[in-house]
Automatic annotation (TrEMBL):
Family: Belongs to the NnrD/CARKD family.
Protein name listed in UniProt: Bifunctional NAD(P)H-hydrate repair enzyme
GO biological process: metabolite repair; nicotinamide nucleotide metabolic process
Organism: Geodermatophilus tzadiensis
Cofactor(s) needed: K(+); Mg(2+)
Gene name in the database record: nnrE
UniProt binding sites for K(+): 59, 119, 155
The YjeF N-terminal domain, residue ranges: 5-209
Cofactor notes: Binds 1 potassium ion per subunit.
Length: 488
């Protein structure tokens, strides 16, 4: 699991470590790691053209010291000082000793020809968008041929929320120090950060236990174990599905198929689109009655395509009245937003799976702080909230949060949410992980499946169902090294 630490948590750990080390040691560690990543990205040092955009403060110092190391290896380094009077003096001296050039913001003639551009304008304490001329230089860097590398956090990105209020530096890579910051993996910040490289500067023992995480493939593999010799269909988990209608029968087929393909022991369908489910999935047990007639179930999925009329409301209330975990998705979210007491403080786990517009029906738009928004709704309702998006956020009532690292924009198509709901129901039915971990694992597997299904072109939701067994196999394989153990 990859911990996500806020700027305040990182600063507190730095303060402890700074008190125990010689002055400048942490900056030298950061600069060494930054220079090493830049060398890997460049593929060579001698003759490479590097431009560092340097602001006041420690991020500018990191960029200057890294530039000095690259210059000492033969790179042609130019530092563009946004505020010459406040540039880090020791870093500036080191760059000059190594043969680097220094210029002001009015004359960075090499920026448009640079092989690599370093963003050391502002760091984790920055608030708001870039100001002129930094915004102009960032735009030129983005339009130029060079690899763009942010120091710690792209300038203009809120380190904690990923919010971008104005212009921001668009990095292809971000080299972050000590811990991954939430703003690098969620919201608009995710798009600005590019590939994130973590440099260890010794903060680990002094960091508070993070309250937000990203799962890796190996983490999710632990919840997708293959059947053991003593297992039967009941020990593998029984999922109940209430989905679909005469208007939207496909939702029932997709949700049921996804639950089956995630490999529970049994799936029972108790909706109003039974004929379609029987035809598509003879493996499912179809009940032509109410959920209470379905038989033994260990978790329910309710909502995809079921409608919002009185019958649908009565069915949802019946499912939520059980002492079983329930996934509340799609139409069920609309009904829950009208009557929050249906889900508030259920004793059994409840997982709400809204996208932004569905989330807003509960009273407040998501806003720029996606983790904070999910946490607030989870605490208010006593439920787990899975907030769908480019980087799906999961939050539990106690503030535990996960940010998903897998997926593809190709998932933005009809029916993929029905598939996610089925996957999540199957994981909840096993009863192994806490509900928020099951939700995060489901989002991770759903994203991996989307990546696999879209490898050769655009996907439709039924492609996800077909590719689920392959995605489960790939994620399981990571635990033994056949797939890189990474969330990304």
């Amino acid at each position: 699991m990859i911990g996500l630490s806020t700027a305040a948590e990182v600063r507190a750990a730095e303060d402890v470590l700074l008190a125990r080390t010689r002055e400048g040691v942490l900056m030298q560690r950061a600069a060494t790691g930054l220079a090493a990543v830049c060398l890997r990205l460049l593929g060579r040092a001698h003759g490479a053209r590097v431009t560092a955009l340097v602001g006041a403060g420690n991020n500018g110092g990191d960029a200057l010291f890294a530039g000095a190391r690259l210059a000492a290896r033969g790179a042609r380094v130019t530092a563009v000082l946004l505020d010459p009077d406040r540039a880090h003096p020791a870093g500036l001296a080191a760059l000059r000793r190594a043969g680097g050039r220094v210029t002001g913001p009015e004359g960075p003639d090499g920026l448009d020809r640079a092989d690599l551009v370093l963003d050391g304008v502002v760091g984790t304490g920055g608030r708001g968008g870039l100001r002129p001329p930094a915004a102009h230089l960032a735009a030129r860097a983005a339009a130029g041929p060079g690899v763009t590398v942010a120091v710690d956090v792209p300038s203009g990105v809120d380190a904690d929320t990923g919010a971008v209020d104005g212009e921001a530096f668009a990095a292809l890579h971000t080299v972050t120090f000590g811990a991954v910051k939430p703003g690098l993996v969620v919201g608009d910040g995710r798009g600005c950060a590019g590939t994130v490289h973590l440099v260890d500067i010794g903060l680990g023992p002094h960091l508070a236990a993070p309250r937000a995480h990203q799962l890796t493939d190996a983490d999710v593999a632990a919840h997708l174990q293959p059947p053991e010799p003593g297992d039967d269909k009941y020990s593998r988990g029984v999922v109940g599905v209430v989905a679909g209608s005469a208007v939207y029968p496909g939702a029932a087929v997709l949700c049921t198929g996804a639950a089956l393909r995630t490999r529970p022991g049994l799936v029972r369908y108790a909706g109003t689109a039974g004929d379609g489910v029987r035809a598509a999935w003879p493996e499912a047990i179809v009940t032509d009655g109410r959920p209470s007639d379905a038989g033994r179930v260990q978790a329910w999925v309710a909502g995809p395509g079921m409608g919002t009329d009185d019958d649908a409301r009565a069915t949802l209330a019946e499912v939520l009245a059980t002492d079983l975990p329930v996934v509340v998705d799609a139409d069920a979210l609309t009904m829950a937003a009208r009557e929050p007491d249906l889900v508030r403080d259920r004793r059994a786990p409840t997982v709400l799976t809204p996208h932004d517009r569905e989330f807003a029906r509960f009273g407040v738009p998501v806003g720029a702080d996606r983790i904070g928004a999910a946490r607030r709704l989870a605490a208010e309702l006593g439920a787990v909230v899975l907030l769908k998006g480019d980087a799906t956020v999961v939050a539990g009532p106690d503030g535990t949060a996960f940010v998903n690292a897998t997926g593809t924009a190709e998932l933005a198509t009809a029916g993929t949410g029905d598939v996610l709901a089925g996957i999540l129901g199957a994981l909840l039915a096993t009863g192994t992980p806490p509900a928020e971990t099951a939700a995060a694992a489901a989002a991770h597997l759903h994203g991996r499946t989307g990546q696999l299904a879209s490898a050769r072109g655009p996907l439709v939701a039924s492609d996800l169902v077909r590719h689920l067994p392959g995605a489960v196999g790939l994620v399981r394989g990571s635990a033994t090294g056949s797939l890189r153990d990474s969330g990304a």
